[in-house]
């Protein structure tokens, strides 16, 4: 079985609702249509769990925007930050969220983004556990993640909880992994990848 990556998950449900509140002005030009299509392709890849592929499409969409500061660019940047969090690129994620703070002219979401930036610092602490996992030290990684795992909606708590489940899976404790993932998906039903992981672990019990 190909080794799975543990997740640097972050995405709060509230963050994913921001796009619905953004007013997008269509220009009607061909280049404008391209950037909307690229954004939609990126979101589809994001929902499939292909975060690296989504990032590539999002970068193309930003380039097609010709540097225009618009609702669409704000939306693209939001998904870009999310993808970078999921692949564990905290430095780039911080840059993206800092840019979102600057673009949030009405300051509607600034407090939320600042909270996310604070959580990124906590995620840095979790990164050592991820490195333990990659080295095959699943028990040590699990014990480190236990310090941060909580289903309170925070980035660090959510990431640690999910990664604990993956550690249990690799330790052959499918019952424990399934239970952790069951609680996780009840709290975060938007996570299709976690649902698939839960079904896999449940099938092995």
List the keywords.
205 residues; mainly alpha; 67% helix; globular
Write a brief structural summary.
With 205 residues, the protein is an all-alpha fold. 67% of the residues lie in helices and 0% in strands.
Blueprint (SSEs and pairs):
Blueprint: H1 30-47, H2 51-64, H3 71-86, H4 90-103, H5 110-134, H6 138-145, H7 155-170, H8 174-187, H9 192-203
Word description of this protein:
It is built from nine helices and no strands. With 205 residues, it is mainly α. Helix 8 (174-187) runs antiparallel to helix 9. The longest helix is centred in the middle third of the chain and has 25 residues, at 110-134. Mean pLDDT is 80; it is low at 9-31.
Low-confidence stretches: 9-31
SS-derived structural category: mainly alpha
SSE string: HHHHHHHHH
Write down the overall mean pLDDT.
80
Radius of gyration: 18 Å
What percentage of the residues does DSSP assign to strands (E)? under 5%
Estimate the global geometry from the Cα principal axes: globular
């Amino acid at each position: 079985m190909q080794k799975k990556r543990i997740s640097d998950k972050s995405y709060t449900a509230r963050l994913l609702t921001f796009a619905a509140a953004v007013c997008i002005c269509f220009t009607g030009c061909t280049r404008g249509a391209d950037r909307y299509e690229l954004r939609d392709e990126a979101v589809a890849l994001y929902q499939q769990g292909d975060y690296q592929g989504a990032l590539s499409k999002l970068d193309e969409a930003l380039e097609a925007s010709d540097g225009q500061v618009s609702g669409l660019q704000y939306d693209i940047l939001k998904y870009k930050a999310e993808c970078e969090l999921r692949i564990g690129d905290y430095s780039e994620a911080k840059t993206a969220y800092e840019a979102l703070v600057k673009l949030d002219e009405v300051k509607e979401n600034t407090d939320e983004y600042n909270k996310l930036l604070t959580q990124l610092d906590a995620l840095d602490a979790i990164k050592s556990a991820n490195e333990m996992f990659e080295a095959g030290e699943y028990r040590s990684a699990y014990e480190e993640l236990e310090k941060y795992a909580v289903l309170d909606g925070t980035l660090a708590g959510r990431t640690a909880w999910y990664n604990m489940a993956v550690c249990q899976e690799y330790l052959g404790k499918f019952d424990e992994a399934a239970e952790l993932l069951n609680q996780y998906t009840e709290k975060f039903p938007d996570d299709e990848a976690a649902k698939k992981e839960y079904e896999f672990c449940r099938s092995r019990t």
